[in-house]
Task: inverse folding
């Protein structure tokens, strides 16, 4: 466990704190109206126990290279998608890659390209990537302020084509390119790290010789590869990377997703040791709830918002610099898995049509024909993005046995507290202490009718007064209490903490 972990401790004597429920201005009531069934949790903030500084570019997305086959998708003219990116983060990072990047033919390349072996579990046809798609992508990046991480293929075994593509990306996208990655999840097709390193090295050499920054190893799992790669190639890289999915889609469920993934957190701490030793950021360049396209009724419902917010903040607390949620059209994801999308829909309303053409786990639904809209996960990302650039603070959390997580950070003079009640069965009253006496701020709730709701998600961070949260006041002793209904989260922003 990291020293920044919030520890579960014995239940404090909550009785003495009960009057404080009104100190935050009657924030909420238990959803069953009964105060007696509330779990009484506590959070003690320690302003002097500093944690990691959260990266400015914490928020990221990952899309298949195949998505670029339609240059109108990532284009400055795709205003609806550009707005959703921009509103989520002013400094996000888009990663292009996935299985389809290993089957991509750069159409401007004039050399020989061997016939591509397609196999079960991979795309059935190569992606034909044209220069106009890169020009459109460059426009999209300028319109959003986002940067780019771009994957070239390793599997085809043609470094000459990879370097030409990398050069074109660099020339067209310019300084908005952070790095080129070589190969997608090579742990799924190279026998071991040594075999990967041998295949990867000629690519890395020509791309670096062309003056283009690289990052990697972009492995699907295998934290040991990340550690070995950092040792061997740390100095040549801009950042280190791997991917994350909790499990395969058939094994997914809301309960499984919300239970968290302590084993992975430990792996991240190991990867972070390697990253810190090589003075490199570590990014999860592709991540989401369940691989094989996501799980319907789990990856695309409100539970994914609570999971996404918790996952991003748990990663940020451990020092991960960016989390790139994988997604895009159903067509692009199904193709990456060697399957054909069935996006036929009888829906007549626009929202349902957008949903039907989108991969299960995508945080944004829609396509160029139908337009775009946020999915529940998008709102969870928004909550976590509030921490970008802030400094994490250590705190002691007593969950009182509920599935509750909490994250605390300082930004300038302000204090941020995220409280995530992933418990499906218990409302929780959280007594906060260690705050600045008499402080004032806002409480913004993230809620939906139920954990399995596809629609009706609200994150009260808007300028619309009806969705702008409510004011909170901390008592003279620096205490305050918040009730979190089961399956909901809240972000507290206190204006003058120091
Ligand atoms: C990852 C691949 C990506 C797939 C995803 C999935 O990189 O191309 O779309 O799995 O299975 O491993 O959903």
Result:
């Amino acid at each position: 466990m990291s020293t920044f972990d919030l520890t579960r401790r014995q239940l404090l004597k909550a009785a003495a704190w009960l009057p404080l429920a009104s100190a935050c201005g009657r924030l909420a009531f238990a959803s069953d109206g009964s105060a007696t069934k509330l779990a009484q949790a506590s959070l003690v903030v320690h302003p002097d126990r500093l944690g990691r500084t959260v990266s400015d570019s914490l928020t990221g997305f990952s899309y298949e290279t195949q998505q670029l086959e339609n240059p109108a998708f990532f284009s400055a003219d795709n205003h609806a998608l550009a707005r959703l990116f921009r509103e989520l983060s002013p400094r996000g990072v888009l990663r292009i890659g996935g299985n389809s990047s290993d089957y991509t033919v750069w159409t401007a390349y004039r050399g020989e390209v061997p016939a591509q072996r397609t196999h079960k579990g991979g795309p059935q046809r190569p992606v034909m990537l044209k220069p106009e798609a890169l020009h459109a992508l460059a426009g999209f990046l300028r319109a959003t302020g986002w940067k780019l991480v771009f994957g070239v293929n390793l599997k085809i075994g043609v470094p000459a084509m990879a370097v030409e593509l990398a050069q074109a990306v660099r020339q067209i996208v310019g300084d908005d390119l952070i790095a080129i990655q070589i190969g997608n999840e090579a742990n799924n097709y190279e026998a071991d790290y040594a075999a990967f390193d041998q295949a990867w090295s000629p690519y890395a050499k020509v791309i670096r010789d062309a003056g283009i920054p690289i990052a990697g190893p972009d492995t699907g799992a295998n934290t040991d590869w990340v550690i070995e790669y950092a040792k061997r190639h740390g100095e040549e890289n801009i950042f280190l990377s791997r991917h994350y999915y909790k499990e395969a889609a058939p094994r997914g469920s809301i309960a499984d997703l919300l239970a968290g993934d302590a084993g992975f957190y430990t792996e991240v701490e190991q990867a972070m040791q390697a990253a810190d030793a090589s003075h490199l950021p570590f990014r999860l360049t592709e991540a989401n709830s369940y691989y094989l396209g996501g799980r319907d009724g789990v990856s695309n419902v409100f539970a994914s918002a609570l999971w996404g917010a918790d996952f991003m903040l748990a990663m940020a607390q451990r020092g991960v610099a960016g989390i790139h949620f994988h997604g895009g059209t159903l067509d692009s994801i199904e193709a990456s898995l060697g399957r054909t999308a069935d996006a036929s829909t009888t829906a007549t309303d626009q929202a349902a049509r957008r949903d039907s053409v989108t991969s299960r786990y995508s945080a944004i639904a829609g396509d160029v024909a139908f337009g775009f809209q946020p999915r529940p996960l998008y709102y969870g990302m928004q909550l976590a993005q509030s921490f970008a650039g802030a400094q994490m603070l250590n705190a002691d959390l007593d969950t009182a046995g509920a599935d509750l997580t909490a994250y605390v950070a300082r930004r300038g003079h302000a204090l941020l507290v995220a409280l995530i009640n992933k418990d499906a069965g218990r409302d929780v009253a959280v007594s906060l202490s260690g705050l600045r006496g008499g402080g004032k701020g806002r409480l913004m709730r993230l809620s939906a009718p139920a954990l399995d709701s596809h629609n009706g998600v609200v994150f009260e961070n808007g300028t619309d007064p009806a969705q702008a949260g409510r004011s909170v006041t901390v008592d003279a002793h620096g205490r305050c209490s918040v009730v979190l209904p089961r399956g909901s989260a809240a972000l507290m922003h206190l204006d003058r903490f120091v």
Q: What stands out?
A: The chain has eleven helices and 22 strands. Confidence is low (pLDDT under 50) at residues 1-36.
